[in-house]
């Protein structure tokens, strides 16, 4: 109950702040926080080019994803670590477990180590963290869709471990500002729905379990950490598609099996990918990424840190 109330409250604050700024016609952000740098660790949700050939698990059109959108809202940039930047996030990364998909993605735990080894966090640095997508996916796939108590325990454990990495950044790394999001509603993804309604509903509960475990682990870090529940924001987009110009919330717009290989030339014939929710069966389209960045953190982040809700 507590975590559900927290998720609703934080989302309402973010949307209210964003709407107020938009209504004023402001193209920049004014707040008590003036970020010096943005840094990121995470999974495919935040991957901006750590994958093979610098591609991303979405429609590769060169536009910002949500982490870059947040940085842009504060007139800052974010580049992948393999280009000399500060984003280590990579698709297929699990929280602590090894990637078994063949992509050799370093775990989020390893990414945090890389970040802390690469730089010293300053008082105006902002670290963005995402996790959960690959852990939920891997556990469900390993169980062949037969979700058991062991599956649920493994996902919850991953959520706790993700929260511990947030704590590590704050307590060991000295991070003053950490933006955290968990996994969105994979039960409503094309991948989840392919298992059938009953299993899809269980996958949804796994996503909730991961996010709740994260919240429980970071519950006393509010001075330094903002959490946004991407599942709540995703549900708003999926349930009110017309409001956001979404014509298709069920079908992937990409025609290739490998997420990294999707480009504007590998889409469904005649499709406008800006009106699709999903790029492939698990990953969102670029425009939906940017909407999440603006609606969840970007325009209201400084105010949320200022008032320490």
From TrEMBL:
Residues 1-23 form the signal peptide. GO terms for molecular function: hydrolase activity, acting on ester bonds. Residues 53-64 have a biased composition (Polar residues). The lineage of its organism: Bacteria, Pseudomonadati, Pseudomonadota, Betaproteobacteria, Burkholderiales. This is GDSL family lipase. InterPro entries: GDSL_Est/Lipase, SGNH_hydro_sf. Gene3D superfamilies: SGNH hydrolase (3.40.50.1110). PANTHER family: GDSL LIPASE/ACYLHYDROLASE FAMILY PROTEIN (AFU_ORTHOLOGUE AFUA_4G14700) (PTHR45648), OS04G0577300 PROTEIN (PTHR45648:SF5). Residues 44-64 are annotated as: Disordered. Keywords: Hydrolase, Signal. PROSITE patterns: PROKAR_LIPOPROTEIN (PS51257). The keyword Hydrolase applies.
